[in-house]
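Feature request, filed as a ticket because there's no other form

It would be nice if the structure record came with a short human-readable summary line next to the tokens. Right now we just get the raw output. Example of a typical job, pasted below so the devs can see what we mean:
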Amino acid sequence: MFAILKKKIMQTRRSCFSSVFCGCSYSFYCFLAMPRGKSLTEREIGQIEAFHSEGLGIREIARKINRSHNLVMNWLEKQENYGKKNKKRGRKKKLSKRDERQIIRKVSNTTKSCAKIKQELGLDVHRQTVWRTINKNPNIFRQKMNKAPRLEPVHIRGRLEFARNNMGRQWNLVGSGCACF
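Raw output as currently delivered:
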């Protein structure tokens, strides 16, 4: 059946029916990624147990109940977990929940860099992992600081001169509309 489908798809060279949802352009592979078959019924489970206790092989049991041998084998090996989804999927997190809370606590109301926070907490992760953790928190808005030009000695002298010239000035009167000075 798949050979016929593949031939038709290759002739028409259209994207698959599910491409509206999955966005793929490889039609044949979308047909192969069909949903799983029906789960075992209570009756079928009982039959598998009975045939297995009689000493029948997996393939023979599969033929008798008209199901695949893989299904029968999987059920016999994983009876308690049959039909349940495995909750642990994907890569293990580098940061624990405690580490994430420490990062958020450290970063709130500071201008420290991600590398500095990572160093202070002694974390063995990349600085971008710290950045992702901060961005994931909806209560903290953080962005990269704009670079400011360095203060040159000329600017430092100018600031000191301004401060010395205006040390005696009453700054609370400046801008109030008073023409006392």
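Something like this underneath would help us a lot:
Residues 42-54 form the longest helix (13 residues).
The two ends are 97 Å apart (CA to CA).
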